[in-house]
Inverse folding.
């Protein structure tokens, strides 16, 4: 192939293009097909890394009893604040509990709070949003007003207010996060429905006289799942951070239950911060890594499901 | 193997000491069985906890009061003995089916850690326990007395309460053993006359005898489990010089002679000292928490003064004072020429108004309130039947107070009682005294006066030039709003912004001790952490 | 425009009243009240319950719920914000005291994050796919993934304690009269607070910029033969700005309560810190006012956002 | 003849590299645009007609490049090889807009919504003329007036959303014509518009061609438009120009089966209900999975084995060329 | 041609409220359809033509009760007598939904991307009582074959098909419950010309096979000429001309229709006609002009056109009547 007298300087891209072109010529006719969504998601390196980290942390928490050699709750006053060792991989905390075990078991609760609240709020938001977005009417009006009320508060103020009203417990925290979180998903689902409502296949279904619930949940909902999933991942990340933040204010999950936030709370003590890095660094890193991985997944999902972001 | 041997020998020994044969439950609650309570006491290894978890900043307790002079001979220390605990439980027929509900009200991490350790140690002897932090109206959840003083049922909804008694007078520990006062303990007949006896005298010897007997009864029956004595940690930076003035119980008022202290001047040559204990939201009425706020200590002078152990040692605002033979009449004369910070004279009328207001102010410290309500005519005033207390009469600078019943703590109370300038409070409702605008910039009588107050940021104090003991030497005290247990105290200290102050928080102590420029001085205070064991059956 | 604003403000009133009622109702259902919080639990056992009841009643806590609510709301409507139950300080004074601190901190953070976020986001979008872009993306992700108080604590450890460059916290000390005196105190909290926001603004600016750059009018602009910077900045960035402004507008409520945790970490005497203690001590009137204020702030912020977008984007017409 | 050629394209290949695949969007096209004439490039979606325009303007997306071929602009200062210029360089920019201007399919999105129409016209003038501020403003008003926009003094400050679709396209043309370009590339300029508005726009373009001698390259999918406006026509299919020539020749005597099928498949107004329309079987191939030879072979009813090889461009006559192995058979027997 | 009406529309109005302001008060109405009288006869193809925004799509949806008319009646006549559809609730409409179906314009949004073709098509069948999956699969397979697609296509997803194929699937869906009348809403407008013919032919074949009635909504007058028996021309929510197709093209009465016809580019070099270029744009249906809606753009407009709304009046035509709404046409049959 004789190059035309191109005077333009070759760039980094040109080499890349040449490779693609040559490959295309050699594999002519062998068109590959595959799930667009999965392919796009997998081709996003960060999302893949995020997913691997996410899976590792989730699995480790899930199988904590198999992985941890120590009981996360049993103190050992003869071995307090010990640095990491073969016996205690992440060292021990100020009551001599194994931090590795605590981080694993704490992950169970934190992930439960984060993911559980995100899923619950998604469930509520989607159920209401999908129906009211499609059907409209008084239900829509009420749901909209209620969500407006919830969304008129700065998030943290509302959370604190609800903590004050409902009290501190694991269940309450999930309820509170769900209450504060459903509005966003509701509005998103509703907005998606409003736009999907105009799609012609919905009109077609209506012209067949199918019931609104069936059209909304069976036919329209699957097409809104992309942004909903993105939203769930992002709220999971946000809720895990909020749990940590509330623990910092002393208003999170009761201290008797190990959560990442509760473990990290030890870093408030300046002396721990200065001298016992193993008490806060592993758990701080775990929270950050987990939230990071969830955010990467969310980003990957967004790119994979959003047709407007090609490339 | 070796350890097992030792513990079993110890168990044999202690089994002989505590003759548990007669002990049994007095009602449907397993916890009314003293053997169960003793088992709990044996199960907790307070020595090790104090040493490790509290890093030495706690002293394992024997009796309710921290003063060994109050203990009778042969107090059982209930030293850690899990084997004995198991035996006792077995004797009492503890079948492990009951999970004890432990509550506490300190939201700090150390307490949670302590709970976790206790939980593990109880589990070790076969007692399941869950713990939780009380929220909301804590007072209502820990108070309330059953109608039936033996069989209950309990008004409170927990089995064990981890709490404390911070007392100014020893009576505070025991007064609730009077019939129908205690939410957790069925009336102990032997205690009733003893409680009366310690309240009916000002004679320390008589009181002590009463305390010893009561400590003995409580110790034997393990009605309340004292855990450890909390010390108070007074800290100082190397810039401060007390010039011989005493360290004392910083929670209350005592003569710290702050006007004689000096501080190393800063770069600008100003003698500025930093402390903690500035108000966070508002200036609290000094009758409530007698000495913990910087203004309660340094802005208001009290009638009498106490030494560091809170023993009355003389007059502060009072020039002279005396109490009658029968202890029912207390007379004192104010010094001449005293003025408030605004320059107006301090009068006996101010004192009278203050006493009457404090008696009506609902949040007045209980010991103080108890003294003031013993004054003749207090009931009528409180009931609204009279405008004044008939028991108070003034003559020039002299105030005479007549008591209806003998109060054991008259002197003590007046070492803590600071009068307020009545002219600012004309027409004020004593119930809502705290809500009065006076407290936005209080006028006091002490060595320092408030210069500037920015809530949540700082409060500055400057010497009161006309102070009756002379103008203070420190030119300015900057008080930052950090309480004990607040991580900010340590950060401020690390940043050289804590020259003197105190903390009760055990985690603060090692941090402060590690700082080269800080000195920590423990002070013994009557402050005992304990388990209240609910011996009434719960529904 | 003015009538539009007036309209919008008027419609806020029923909303605010409904919200205030709900908060009041919620707080009513919680056990305890301000009086029970005035007493340390250690001392509770020694207090005389009858006297406390008297105090409750004198503070109006004994009255029926609706009466209390009515007294309170009618006061607020008349501009009387009431008094903090705990200390009796006029709530208006508390606001006057704390609000400047919160505004100072939040505005600083908003400023930093807006400028930094838009610049970085634009760079990221313009170098899409490059190492710079990916680096910025990962850093931005980290920014939103690390708990902010954790950042704050480590920052205190490093910059205040170990390096001694900046004060550990607080906002001011006696003699700090000017803004410049207080600046060192502001630096750390503002930076830490801005980290998360910067990351957010950056991500948003990036995708908004990418969106703008993919639009047809960019091709039109290129077809005019204009230099790339003009295409990117004048056409791309200008259009990308609208959603970014909207995002920042919705961050405005942070000015009132969103910096709660950072205020706590750095002992910043702002509204957020006040709110936490008011919630803890169940100081109803104060909690209510802060909550209402923050709600108002959100609603007014959304009004401001609408006005701003109307100014920036000629397509948006108010009132439609 | 040579002097009135405004632009020559020779053997142009432009490939796209999206999603790690290579799409040979244009695979060797040649044509020329004559001064004062309209060249219509007609074809179905995905045939590469818009890519051709983008290649000439060097407005290709990032993930694409001109592989081969020559694009020569015959400007007043002699020929310029556009394909050799840097995409964003000063030389290319001085050609864009000034020498070759372009209008786009959707006037809704092609105008920047946050700037007034006037601003967007003046921007062009600022870069390519030495006019002062005031003069630019006046010129913008003149341009709008000449595009038939009522009240140009007022409308010049209006934002695009206040214009109707037809007016926006006029404004687009005003921008394109503001520097009197020698070539106007119009990429489906009326597809988004109603027929009555389309007629207005065509009227305007005809006038411009007549008055200014502008060379127009009009991209369309509508044979009707070709018939109405074109002087020359090039029919594109899957990245090739399968047939090109003067409009009369190509439409009356099409020799490529695709051209013929295309003309046969559309109902023509005025031919009544009885006209016969013949559908083209099958569908356009996947660009990533193209036939090896003639791209139309799979759908062609005249297909022979030889069609597995790419047919060369062959001149049927001086100005009529075709890419088909069997063109001679069709050329002789007409339609 | 005229047989029994299957549908009769009388004075149908569809007005959409326009809400403005903070309180979302209704401040105006979009008069999408503004008083339309129309009969659709069994077995005919009725063309509904007009430019965008003229209300033709809304009218189509109003026929199917997808949009409820704000005024007027839509009466269905079947074997079981006449039924007023506009007053029926969803349950009452159930029986009629089966008889009336619709094919949409956009092949991209007409199929649910989340479902396979079978998944999209089976639900209506289930809804109309086809209980077993096997039966449904058979029906869907048959339908696909009826539209010239392979049975196996039913297990694939919409994105695997081209626009023309999707449009055929859309037709299959409309046919799935054996309707009597199908509204084709711009059914071929979005397709490439080579595909368009395929679909048109398919539609005509199906009509013959199943004795269908079509309401064919389009903006393309060349397609209507080829396809329709009668044509109704709409402008701003009103029918301005209505007659047999041939009559419309040979004897155009309304000035708007005249302009419309002349504006269409014809792909026939021999039929180039003089364009009538209309000035200005279609007015907003929110605030339509007084009198004749077309008068601001009409060359012949007179005072009466500005003040009085012309009614649709009948004129004698070759074989039947020719309806038009214009003041300026002489000799109406009768009022």
């Amino acid at each position: 192939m004789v190059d035309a007298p191109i005077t333009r300087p070759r760039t980094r891209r040109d080499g890349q293009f040449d490779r693609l072109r040559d490959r295309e010529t050699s594999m002519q006719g062998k068109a590959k097909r595959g799930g667009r969504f999965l392919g796009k998601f997998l081709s996003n390196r960060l999302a893949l890394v995020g997913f691997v980290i996410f899976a590792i942390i989730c699995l480790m928490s899930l199988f904590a009893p198999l992985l941890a050699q120590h009981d996360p709750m049993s103190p050992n006053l003869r071995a307090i604040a010990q640095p990491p060792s073969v016996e205690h991989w992440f060292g021990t905390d100020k009551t001599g509990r194994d931090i590795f075990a605590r981080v694993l078991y704490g992950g169970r609760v934190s992930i439960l709070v984060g993911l559980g609240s995100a899923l619950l709020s998604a469930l509520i938001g989607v159920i209401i949003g999908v129906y009211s977005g499609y059907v409209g009417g008084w239900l829509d009006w009420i749901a909209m007003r209620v969500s407006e009320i919830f969304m008129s508060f700065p998030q943290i103020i509302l959370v604190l207010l609800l903590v004050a009203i409902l009290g501190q417990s694991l269940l309450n925290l999930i309820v509170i996060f769900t209450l504060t979180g459903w509005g966003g998903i509701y509005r998103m689902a509703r907005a998606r429905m409003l736009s999907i409502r105009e799609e012609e296949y919905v009109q077609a279904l209506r012209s067949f006289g199918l019931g609104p619930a069936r059209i909304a949940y069976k036919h329209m909902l699957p097409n809104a799942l992309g942004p909903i999933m993105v939203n769930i991942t992002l709220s999971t990340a946000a809720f895990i951070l909020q749990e940590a933040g509330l623990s910092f204010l002393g208003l999170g999950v009761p201290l008797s239950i190990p959560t990442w936030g509760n473990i990290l709370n030890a870093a408030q003590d300046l002396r721990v911060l200065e001298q016992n890095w193993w008490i806060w660094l592993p758990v701080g890193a775990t929270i950050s890594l987990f939230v990071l991985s969830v955010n990467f997944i969310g980003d990957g999902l967004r790119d994979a499901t959003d047709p407007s972001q090609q490339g | 193997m070796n350890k097992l041997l030792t513990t079993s020998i110890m168990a044999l020994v202690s089994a002989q000491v505590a003759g548990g044969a007669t002990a049994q439950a007095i009602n449907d609650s397993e916890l009314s069985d003293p053997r169960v309570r003793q088992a709990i006491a044996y199960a907790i290894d307070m020595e090790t906890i104090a040493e490790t978890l509290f890093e030495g900043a706690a002293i394992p307790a024997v009796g309710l009061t921290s003063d060994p002079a109050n203990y009778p001979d042969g107090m059982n220390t209930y030293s850690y003995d899990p084997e004995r605990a198991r035996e006792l439980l077995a004797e009492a027929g503890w079948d492990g089916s009951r999970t004890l509900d432990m509550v506490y009200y300190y939201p700090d991490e150390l307490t949670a850690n302590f709970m976790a350790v206790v939980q593990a140690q109880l589990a070790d002897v076969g007692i399941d326990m869950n713990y939780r932090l009380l929220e909301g109206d804590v007072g209502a959840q820990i108070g309330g007395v059953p109608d039936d003083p033996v069989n209950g049922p309990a008004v409170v909804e927990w089995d064990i309460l981890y709490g404390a008694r911070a007392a100014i007078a020893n009576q505070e520990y025991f007064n609730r053993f009077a019939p129908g006062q205690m939410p957790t303990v069925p009336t102990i007949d032997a205690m009733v006359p003893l409680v009366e006896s310690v309240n009916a005298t000002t004679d320390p010897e008589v009181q002590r005898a009463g305390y010893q007997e009561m400590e003995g009864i409580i110790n034997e029956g393990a009605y309340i489990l004292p855990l450890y004595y909390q010390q108070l940690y007074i800290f100082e930076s190397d810039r401060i010089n007390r010039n011989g003035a005493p360290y004392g119980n910083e929670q209350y008022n005592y003569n710290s002679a702050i006007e004689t202290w000096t501080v190393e001047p800063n770069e600008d040559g100003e003698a500025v000292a930093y402390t903690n204990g500035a108000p966070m939201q508002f200036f609290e009425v000094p009758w409530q928490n007698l000495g913990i706020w910087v203004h309660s200590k340094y802005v208001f002078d009290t009638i009498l003064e106490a030494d560091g152990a809170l023993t009355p040692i003389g007059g502060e605002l009072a020039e002279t004072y005396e109490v009658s033979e029968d202890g029912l009449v207390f007379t004192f004369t104010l010094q001449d020429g005293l003025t408030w910070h605004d320059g107006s004279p301090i009068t006996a009328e101010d004192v009278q108004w203050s006493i009457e207001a404090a008696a009506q102010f609902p949040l007045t410290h209980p010991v103080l309130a108890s003294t003031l309500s013993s004054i003749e005519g207090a009931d009528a005033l409180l009931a609204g039947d009279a405008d004044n207390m008939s028991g108070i009469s003034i003559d020039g600078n002299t105030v005479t107070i007549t008591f209806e019943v003998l109060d054991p703590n008259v002197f003590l109370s007046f070492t803590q009682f600071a009068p307020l300038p009545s002219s600012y409070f004309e027409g004020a409702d004593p119930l809502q005294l705290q809500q009065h605008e006076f407290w936005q910039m209080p006028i006091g009588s002490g060595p320092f006066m408030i210069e500037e107050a920015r809530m949540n940021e700082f409060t500055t104090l400057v010497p009161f030039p006309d102070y009756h003991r002379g103008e203070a030497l420190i030119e300015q005290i900057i008080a930052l709003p950090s309480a004990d247990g607040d991580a900010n105290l340590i950060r401020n200290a690390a940043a050289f912004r804590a020259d003197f102050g105190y903390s009760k928080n055990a985690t603060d102590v090692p941090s402060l001790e590690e700082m080269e420029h800080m000195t920590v001085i423990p002070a013994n205070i009557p402050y005992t952490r304990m388990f209240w064991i609910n011996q009434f059956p719960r529904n | 425009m003015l009538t539009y604003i007036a309209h919008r403000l008027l419609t806020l009133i029923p909303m605010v009243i409904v919200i205030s009622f709900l908060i009041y109702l919620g707080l009513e259902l919680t056990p305890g009240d301000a009086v029970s919080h005035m007493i340390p639990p250690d001392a509770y056992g020694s207090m005389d319950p009858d006297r406390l009841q008297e105090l409750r009643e004198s503070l109006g806590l004994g009255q029926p719920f609706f009466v209390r609510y009515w007294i309170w709301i009618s006061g607020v409507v008349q501009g009387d914000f009431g008094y903090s139950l705990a200390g009796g300080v006029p709530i208006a004074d508390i606001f006057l005291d704390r609000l400047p601190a919160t505004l100072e901190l939040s505005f600083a953070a908003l400023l930093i994050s807006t400028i930094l976020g838009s610049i970085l986001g634009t760079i990221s979008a313009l170098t899409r796919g490059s190492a710079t872009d990916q680096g910025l993306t990962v850093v931005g992700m980290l920014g939103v993934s690390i708990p902010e108080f954790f950042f704050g604590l480590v920052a205190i450890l490093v910059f205040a304690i170990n390096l001694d460059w900046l004060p550990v916290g607080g906002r001011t000390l006696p003699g700090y009269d000017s803004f410049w005196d207080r600046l060192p105190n502001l630096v750390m909290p503002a930076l830490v607070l801005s980290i998360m926001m910067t990351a957010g603004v950056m991500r948003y600016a990036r995708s908004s910029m990418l969106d703008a750059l993919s639009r047809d009018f960019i091709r039109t602009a290129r077809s005019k033969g204009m230099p790339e910077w003009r295409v990117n900045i004048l056409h791309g960035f200008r259009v990308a700005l609208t959603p970014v402004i909207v995002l920042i507008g919705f961050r405005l409520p942070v000015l009132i309560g969103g910096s709660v945790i950072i205020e706590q970490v750095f002992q910043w005497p702002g509204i957020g810190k006040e709110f936490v203690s008011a919630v803890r001590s169940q100081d109803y009137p104060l909690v209510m006012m802060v909550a209402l204020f923050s709600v108002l702030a959100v609603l007014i912020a959304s009004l401001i956002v609408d006005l701003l977008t109307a100014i920036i984007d000629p397509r948006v017409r108010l009132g439609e | 003849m040579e002097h009135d050629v405004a632009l020559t394209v020779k053997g142009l290949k432009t490939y796209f590299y999206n999603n790690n695949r290579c799409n040979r969007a244009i695979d060797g096209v040649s044509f020329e645009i004559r001064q004062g004439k309209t060249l219509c490039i007609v074809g179905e979606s995905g045939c590469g007609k818009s890519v051709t325009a983008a290649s000439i303007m060097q407005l290709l997306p990032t993930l694409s490049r001109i592989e081969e071929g020559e694009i020569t602009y015959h400007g007043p200062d002699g020929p310029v090889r556009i394909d050799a210029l840097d995409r964003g360089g000063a030389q290319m920019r001085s050609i864009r807009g000034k020498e070759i201007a372009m209008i786009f399919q959707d006037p809704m999105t092609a105008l920047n919504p946050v700037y007034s129409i006037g601003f967007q016209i003046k921007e062009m003038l600022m870069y390519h003329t030495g006019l002062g501020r005031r003069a630019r403003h006046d010129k913008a008003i003149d341009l709008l007036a000449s595009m038939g926009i009522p009240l140009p003094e007022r409308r010049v400050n209006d934002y695009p959303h206040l214009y109707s679709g037809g007016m926006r396209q006029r404004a687009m043309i005003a921008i394109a014509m503001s520097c009197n370009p020698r070539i106007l590339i119009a990429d489906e300029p009326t597809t988004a518009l109603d027929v009555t508005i389309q007629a207005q726009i065509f009227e305007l373009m005809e006038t411009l061609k007549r008055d200014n001698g502008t060379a127009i390259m009009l991209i369309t999918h509508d044979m009707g438009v070709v018939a109405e406006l074109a002087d020359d026509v090039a029919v594109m299919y899957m990245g090739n120009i399968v047939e090109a020539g003067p409009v009369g020749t190509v439409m009356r005597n099409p020799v490529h089966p695709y051209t013929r099928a295309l003309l046969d498949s559309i109902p023509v107004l005025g031919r009544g209900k009885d006209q016969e329309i013949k559908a083209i079987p099958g569908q356009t191939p996947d660009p990533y999975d193209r036939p090896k030879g003639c791209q139309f072979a799979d759908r062609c009813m005249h297909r022979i084995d030889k069609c597995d090889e790419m047919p060369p461009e062959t001149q049927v006559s001086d100005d009529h060329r075709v890419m088909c192995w069997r063109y001679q058979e069709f050329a002789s027997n007409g339609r | 041609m005229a047989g029994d009406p299957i549908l009769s529309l009388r004075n149908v109005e569809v007005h959409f409220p326009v809400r403005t302001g903070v309180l979302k008060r209704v401040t105006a109405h979009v008069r999408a359809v503004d008083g339309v009288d129309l009969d659709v006869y069994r077995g005919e193809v009725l063309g509904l033509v007009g430019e965008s925004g003229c209300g033709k799509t809304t009218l189509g949806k109003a026929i199917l009760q997808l949009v409820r008319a704000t005024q007027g009646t839509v009466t269905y006549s079947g074997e079981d007598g006449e039924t007023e559809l506009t007053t029926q609730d969803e349950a009452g409409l159930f029986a009629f939904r089966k008889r009336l179906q619709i094919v949409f314009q956009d092949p991209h949004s007409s199929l649910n991307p989340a479902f396979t073709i079978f998944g999209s098509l089976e639900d209506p069948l289930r809804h109309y009582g086809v209980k077993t999956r096997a039966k449904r699969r058979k029906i869907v397979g048959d339908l696909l074959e009826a539209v010239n697609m392979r049975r196996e296509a039913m297990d694939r997803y919409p994105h695997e098909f081209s626009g023309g194929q999707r449009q055929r699937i859309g037709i299959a869906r409309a046919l799935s419950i054996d309707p009597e009348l199908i509204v084709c809403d711009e059914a071929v407008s979005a397709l490439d010309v080579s595909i368009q013919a395929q679909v048109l032919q398919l539609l005509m074949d199906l009509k013959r096979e199943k004795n269908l009635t079509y309401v064919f909504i389009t903006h393309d007058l060349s397609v209507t000429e080829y396809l329709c028996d009668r044509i109704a021309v709409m402008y701003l929510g009103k029918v301005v001309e209505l007659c047999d197709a041939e009559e419309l093209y040979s004897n155009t009465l309304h000035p708007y229709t005249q302009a419309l016809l002349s504006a269409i580019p014809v792909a026939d070099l021999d039929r180039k006609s003089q364009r009538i270029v209309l000035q200005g744009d279609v007015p907003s249906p929110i605030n339509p002009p007084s009198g004749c809606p077309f008068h601001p753009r009409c060359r012949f407009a007179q005072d009466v056109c500005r003040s009085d709304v012309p009614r649709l009046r009948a004129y004698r035509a070759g074989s039947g009547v020719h309806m038009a709404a214009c003041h300026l046409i002489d000799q109406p049959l009768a009022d």
